[in-house]
């Protein structure tokens, strides 16, 4: 079995759980004799290719694509997702894109030349442009690679997956790690929603990371129930090493680790911290991450007068994440809408008791975690106080949580997905 897989990031260059999930999943697939061609916009050269073959979209000659895929350009349509992108791409429009300043002339020999799109590989201001170019490139890759099934992760790669399906005729699986409703609540970006919906409609099978997400896909996007399958995420233990770290402080440490955005509920963490500190001064709170709400959280902490007990680390990755968990006494994930949530599993792996919101997919698979509604700041504060003040309670969740998380392996997820592949290709 050979899979053409489209992603936007791959370790060590990640911004959250998506890259971590792709890494864990592909490693487990490789152990089951599944060959994965993993396409990213930009490769940095230090990716672990022991289980996958990394293909960088920026290395693909789009001039050659325009010559070979004329029929494709007559049929594929791109959704209009910003003023920077044309809504429909035909052969003439494709030539304009190729000749625009988004491509770089890498080689010229007589009348021939090679042109390739530039990709930042980031989530910056040109993200929408890169999504469009990525789909253009995907068509060329699909025309030249040999594979059995296409697998696209999240909305950024759905247009690429659709392009690859149209060119190759192979079945398409889209993997929903988050929806626009998770990211934006009810104030959704209609254009992004349309891309998500189109990707799910064009897919032969839709994988949801939780039943929570599956329900959103069915009710909010109108996708038939029999087309949507839940495959829960897991945690990778292979590179985990327990270390003793010098804490540098005598107080207990309560940690929030994730993007500081609406979806992750950082404001509820700050308000709960303020309530805890009114009664317990032997505690420090850490917000590890970055995002568009970070400055607002810093101002709120200052206004509440708890800055001397609150720390902002910025974005953490690699060994720094493991170190933060090892230093923590309690981990909190107060997400407003969390399709799954891998970080609580990583915390439990490090023997840290966790508090998670009921509005999360991971709450479906965890029994030994304290669960609260994200908006219930009083319940969140009470739960933090309970774990900090009663060692028997904390030790109970540590012991049973460690046993529970040991059973959540990527191998189980890989087997389910491989079974989906087999159903589509047999």
Topology:
Layout: E1 2-6, H1 17-30, E2 35-40, E3 53-56, H2 62-68, H3 70-75, H4 91-99, E4 103-109, E5 112-117, H5 127-144, E6 149-153, H6 158-168, E7 172-176, H7 180-184, H8 190-202, E8 205-208, H9 211-221, E9 228-230, E10 252-257, H10 266-277, E11 283-288, H11 294-304, E12 310-314, H12 319-327, E13 330-333, H13 343-349, E14 354-357, E15 370-372, H14 377-389, H15 391-405, H16 410-425
Parallel strand pairs: 1-2, 1-6, 2-3, 6-7, 7-8, 8-9, 10-11, 10-13, 11-12, 13-14, 14-15
Antiparallel strand pairs: 4-5
Helix pairs in contact: 1-16, 2-5, 5-6, 6-8, 10-11, 10-14
CATH topology of the largest domain: Rossmann fold
Rg on CA atoms, Å: 23 Å
Strand content: 15-25%
- Per DSSP, the total helix count is 16
How far apart are the first and last residues' alpha carbons, in Å?
Answer: 11 Å
The CATH superfamily label of the largest domain reads: Glycogen Phosphorylase B
Structural domain tally? 2
Main beta sheet strand tally, sense and closure:
7 strands, parallel
Low-confidence stretches: 76-94, 101-111
Give the % helix.
40-55%
Please tell me the CATH architecture of the largest domain by its name.
3-Layer(aba) Sandwich
Rounded mean pLDDT score: 85
Structure description:
The structure is a single chain. This protein is of the alpha/beta class and 426 residues long. The chain is 42% helix and 17% strand. The protein has helices spanning 17-30, 62-68, 70-75, 91-99, 127-144, 158-168, 180-184, 190-202, 211-221, 266-277, 294-304, 319-327, 343-349, 377-389, 391-405, 410-425; strands at 2-6, 35-40, 53-56, 103-109, 112-117, 149-153, 172-176, 205-208, 228-230, 252-257, 283-288, 310-314, 330-333, 354-357, 370-372. The strands form three sheets. Strands 3-2-1-6-7-8-9 form a seven-stranded parallel β-sheet, sandwiched between helices. Helix 1 crosses helix 16 (410-425), helix 5 (127-144) packs parallel to helix 6 and helix 10 packs across helix 14 (377-389). The longest helix has 18 residues, at 127-144. The protein is globular and about 70 Å long. Residues 76-94 and 101-111 have low confidence and may be disordered.
